[in-house]
Amino acid sequence: MSAAPAVRDQTAAYSLLNLIQGSVITQAISAAAKLGIADVLADGPLPAEEIAKRVGADPEATYRLLRTLSGYSVFAIQPDGRYTLTPMADALRENATDSMRGMAMLMGHPLLWEDWGHLLTSVRTGEANMPKLRGMGAYEFLMSNPEYAGEFFQGMGSISQSETDPVLAAYDFSQFSKIVDVIGGRGALLAGMLNQAPDAKGVLYDQEMATTDAKPVLEAAGVADRVTIENGAPFDKLPAGADAYVLKHVLHDFPEDACLTMLNNLREAIAPDGKVLVIEYVLNENNERHIGNIIDLWLLLLLGAKERTLPQYTELFAKAGLKVVRAVPTSSPVSIIEAIPV
Question: Which of 76, 54, 165, 147 lies closest to 109, judged by CA?
């Protein structure tokens, strides 16, 4: 009687397969987000048939979608067969405190998937592929496609918004008398900083189209009377004389020469005793898993830009006459890099 063949250990292969099929889960989550399934379940558990009815989808297909996502703890099924929210599913609600619905919808968009289909080209060339694919840069393409731009900025905004409270909790902004938020958009972060610094004035600096909706945000936070909105482009001269200049997710969008232009303008504008606060993903040097590594590939693909390690930021800042003092971690993936003029 022949011996039974030895059973291979296929753990690694199936773990890899699980990662390979991650794109399917991305699309499944995106579909659930676009249908609004999490919002339907906000008031309590429901059977798949009722969920399908409320979101306008096929009952069996909806059940199959929920069954798959429940295996990844996005939704859960109760003993009575009704589906319910999990903590992750709750973050798919449109009005959740840290809603990721916008990002989920963006990650399923056909145009974004077309971009990612060309990652290999960017890895081979080291250059952004967006200009080659679209015939224009990333920002020009977004401005030419307002529907996609709406989803893109909503998705990115959902991540940025989730970082605001951790940043405010990690750093003492009350030490400043005048804070300039460079490329600050609608001003939500600046409003939070000014609420920590009740005697400080603020300047919201960005292009006019980015600050259009800022006034209601600042008014709702009770700081509108302490904020001046100044419009300008990223590489223009900055409002001068402040003791704090904040750049959140700005430098990572640009190659080094452009970053240096911006930092040199900042160095020229800052008060002698001022501080530069750059809020970015600071990559680990040991290749640990970090969301910044994923964003880094995204930046390569779309813009030819990159995320950086702390030594890389230190070297970059030094070229602009700025000295990195420390990097303050937050409870989110971003850190606050504090630098001073030298």
Answer: 147
Tell me the per-residue pLDDT of 176-189, one tens digit each, with 9 for 90 and over: 999 999 999 999 99
Q: What is the 3-state secondary structure (H, E, C) of 135-148?
A: CCCHHHHHHHCHHH
Q: What are the helix and strand counts (H, E) for the chain? A: 18, 10
Does the pLDDT of residue 210 top 90, yes or no?
A: no
Question: What predicted TM-score, i.e. pTM, was given to this entire model?
Answer: 0.89
- What are the DSSP E strand ranges found in 188-302? 201-206, 227-231, 244-248, 275-283
Q: If DSSP codes are grouped into helix, strand and coil, which group holds residue 212?
A: coil
Q: Cβ(217)–Cβ(192) under 8 Å?
A: no
Question: Could you say which of 109, 118, 249, 252 is catalytic?
Answer: 252
**Among this protein's residues, is 109 annotated catalytic?**
no
Backbone angles phi and psi of 280, in degrees to 5:
-150, 170
53 token code pair: 């009815």
- What does each C-alpha distance from 69 to 18, 283, 322 come to in angstroms? 14, 30, 48
